[in-house]
């Protein structure tokens, strides 16, 4: 064993939890069994999936609204079933997307300072998934472009400004467990319950990479390693060991790095900070948050340290880097979900100097898009626009303009024989209910058959991959 300690600027990074009075208490957090982080964060607000009776809801809470929150907290409650995931618009802090068990994706506007009353009507409703929507994620470079993953085994890309579906990524044989974009956003990687890691070219709708991932029965997640052609996945082995895999997309048949973590049962939630090359790992039900530094030259993950706590976490979200407090050398801020509370945890690099530390704060992703959704699908590719944090970053409290044009509703024509037209109001209602019931029955039968076909195709594909390996 070497007596030398590896040199790193981040060896002494430590996490500091916020005091109880500046946490967010008395929250009725969703009890859904769906694998989600429960919380998302932007420079002005954080969102939390809500435990709502008789429908689906989530709360959006300003950062300065701390302490014990009132029982009657205003909610976004337009969904008719449990909300499973939310995501903030990266270029408009006052827009948020939600996906729910009612098979819908909704886009909401957040007024200045947050909402004062319940909001039931979204700015945009996106319908197209045949099963519940479990993941939503905005594009990192193109404006108003959103990905949603449903239990119908497909990922849909939406232009939320025009309420239009742009493309669909299929081929999954089971429920999609996570999504992650490449640095320029032209590729999207997914992990799936069928244990296959897929990397899609979004515009061509094809899977550029399909390879066997973690072989355990529990959930796996993926996160792209910044501007590298590499992906980290976390999951479980056949013997239920928690694992970390590093994949090189130039040779994706097997991972270039495999690391066994422990035998805990909690699903790992990864977060990668490109600016510091630090990978944060928080396990559900764990009290600790581990962090590693990735060295691409050595293709190695070096363990740095861990934040320890006796309180288990149900979920976690990270503040965008541009909103961190650089005057305190804060390189990351996590929002840890307890049973009824959200607790901020600040990760800092100890430095004596009080001047701007350019070596630990390189230019980072800003809040301006690099291109439009139309430009992206026309073939244009651009990296995210970067900003300097030397003078700090001030989030815009005034809401940016967001105008959405709903897709026009169509009409349904029925072919068959010429039937007598209903004439009275009761007959019209009965005819409507009959047609609606018949339509739902046929739709459900079709969805079940399509899902079964996808499962069989995935099994064949998995068997083929296993044979090749």
Walkthrough of the structure:
The protein has a single domain (14-387), classed as YVTN repeat-like/Quinoprotein amine dehydrogenase (Methylamine Dehydrogenase, Chain H), CATH 2.130.10.10. It has 2 helices and 34 strands. The chain has helices spanning 373-377, 425-468; strands spanning 14-17, 24-25, 39-41, 45-50, 56-62, 67-68, 76-79, 83-88, 95-100, 104-109, 124-127, 133-138, 142-143, 145-150, 155-159, 164-169, 176-181, 187-192, 196-201, 206-212, 221-224, 230-236, 242-248, 257-260, 268-273, 278-283, 289-295, 300-307, 315-318, 330-337, 341-348, 364-365, 371-372, 386-387. The strands form 9 sheets. Strands 1, 2, 6, 29, 30 and 31 form a 6-stranded mixed β-sheet that branches. The chain has a 4-stranded antiparallel β-sheet with strand order 3-4-5-7, with no helix packed on it. Residues 408-423 have low confidence and may be disordered.
CATH architectural grouping: 7 Propeller
Low-confidence stretches: 408-423
Question: Which band does the percent of strand residues land in?
Answer: 35-45%
> What's the CATH superfamily, by name?
YVTN repeat-like/Quinoprotein amine dehydrogenase
So how many helices? 2
Terminal CA distance reads 34 Å
| Assembly of the depicted chains | single chain
Q: What name is given to the CATH topology?
A: Methylamine Dehydrogenase, Chain H
- Which percent range fits the helix content? 10-25%
User: How many distinct beta strands?
Assistant: 34
| Overall shape | globular
CATH class: Mainly Beta
Give the overall pLDDT as a whole number.
89
- In terms of structural class, how would the helical and strand content be classed? mainly beta
* Structural Rg: 23 Å
Kindly give the count of domains.
Answer: 1
Biggest sheet layout: 6 strands, mixed
Family: Belongs to the WD repeat coronin family.
Subunit structure: Binds to F-actin.
Pfam families: DUF1899 (PF08953), WD40 (PF00400), WD40_4 (PF16300)
WD repeats: 76-110, 126-168, 169-210
């Amino acid at each position: 064993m070497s007596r030398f300690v590896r040199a790193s600027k981040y060896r002494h990074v430590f996490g500091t939890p916020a005091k109880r009075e500046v946490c967010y208490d008395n929250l009725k957090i969703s009890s859904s069994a769906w694998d989600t982080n429960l919380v998302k964060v932007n420079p002005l607000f954080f969102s939390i999936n809500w435990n709502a009776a008789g429908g689906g809801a989530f709360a959006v809470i300003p950062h300065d609204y701390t302490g014990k929150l009132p029982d009657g907290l205003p909610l976004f409650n337009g969904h008719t079933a449990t909300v499973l995931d939310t995501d903030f618009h990266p270029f408009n802090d006052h827009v948020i997307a939600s996906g729910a068990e009612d098979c819908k994706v909704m886009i909401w506007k957040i007024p200045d300072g947050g909402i004062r009353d319940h909001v039931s009507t979204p700015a945009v409703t996106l319908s197209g998934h045949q099963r519940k929507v479990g993941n939503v994620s905005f594009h990192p470079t193109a404006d108003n472009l959103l990905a949603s993953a449903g239990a119908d085994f497909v990922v849909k890309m939406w232009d939320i400004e025009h309420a239009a579906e742009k493309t669909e990524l299929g081929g999954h044989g089971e429920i999609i467990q996570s999504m992650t974009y490449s640095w320029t956003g032209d590729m999207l990687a997914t992990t799936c319950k069928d244990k296959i890691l897929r990397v899609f070219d979004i515009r061509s709708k094809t899977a550029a990479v399909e390879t066997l991932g973690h072989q355990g029965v529990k959930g796996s997640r993926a996160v792209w390693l910044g501007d590298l052609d590499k992906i980290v996945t976390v999951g479980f082995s056949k013997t239920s060991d928690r694992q970390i895999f590093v994949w090189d997309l130039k040779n994706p048949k097997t991972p270039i790095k495999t690391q066994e973590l422990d035998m805990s049962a909690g699903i790992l939630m990864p977060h990668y900070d490109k600016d510091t090359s630090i990978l944060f790992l928080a396990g559900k039900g764990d009290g600790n948050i581990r962090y590693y530094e990735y060295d691409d030259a050595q293709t190695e993950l070096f363990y740095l340290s861990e934040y320890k706590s006796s309180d288990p976490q149900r979920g976690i979200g990270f503040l965008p880097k541009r909103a961190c407090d650089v005057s305190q050398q804060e390189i990351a801020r996590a929002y840890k979900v307890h049973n009824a509370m959200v607790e901020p945890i600040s990760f800092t690099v100890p430095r004596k100097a009080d001047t701007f530390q350019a070596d630990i704060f390189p230019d980072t992703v800003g809040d301006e898009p690099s291109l439009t959704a139309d430009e992206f699908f026309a073939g244009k590719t651009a990296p995210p626009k970067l900003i300097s944090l030397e003078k700090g970053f001030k989030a815009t409290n005034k809401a940016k303009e967001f105008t959405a044009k709903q897709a026009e509703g169509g009409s349904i024509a029925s072919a068959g024989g010429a039937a007598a037209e209903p004439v009275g109001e009761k007959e019209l209602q009965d005819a409507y209910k009959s047609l609606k019931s018949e339509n739902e029955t046929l739709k459900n039968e079709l969805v079940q058959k399509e899902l079964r076909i996808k499962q069989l195709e995935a099994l064949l594909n998995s068997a083929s991959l296993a044979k090749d390996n």
